[in-house]
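Milestone M4 deliverable, item 7.
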Amino acid sequence: MENVLEIKHPIIDRYLTFLRDKNTSTAVFRRAMSNIGVILAYHSLSDLPLDETEIETPIQKTKGYVPGPEVVVIPILRAGLSLVDGIINFMPEAKVGHVGVYRDEETHQPVNYYDNLPVGIKDAYNLVVDPMLATGGSGSHAIKFLKENGAKTIKFVCLIAAPEGIERLQKDHPDVPIITAAIDEKLNENAYIVPGLGDAGDRYFGTI
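Output delivered:
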């Protein structure tokens, strides 16, 4: 699929096994999400522009590098918070904004209920984060909101994606790359990803 990176790695396969297993405890689920978040951040920031700087080692002066644009992580509440810990562990200086979007259980359409974005997203390297890309409605809604607020560089980062969600994002925002740990089979009649892992937010926060 064009503009979609599905990360292939044996450690991701191992963590996904923990995450998919319905018998996995909340503590193990959280650790697996955090660890995969680090891997997703590594790949999502692989083309982050750098500025050259000069530093001094104990031996001599040499070149060093610092991020050019600021990195802003924008989780879609609440489930998107589950990946933030791993991402900011990889990139501690990243700012974190929030966009609150929930899916109406009857219409499956996104509803915006909250937003809090840091100053400077216009020139920042923005990662929109949600563990599950299902219908794509919430993701498309959040990306549209960021664009309306001036964001130019945006990537969508998720744990698991359904083909239907990928198609929706590519149709609505063909300029936005998608980085995911797995592309699953399909959506079921309730718009849940198959095989998926259930409700990522409920399992992460222990509210099942």
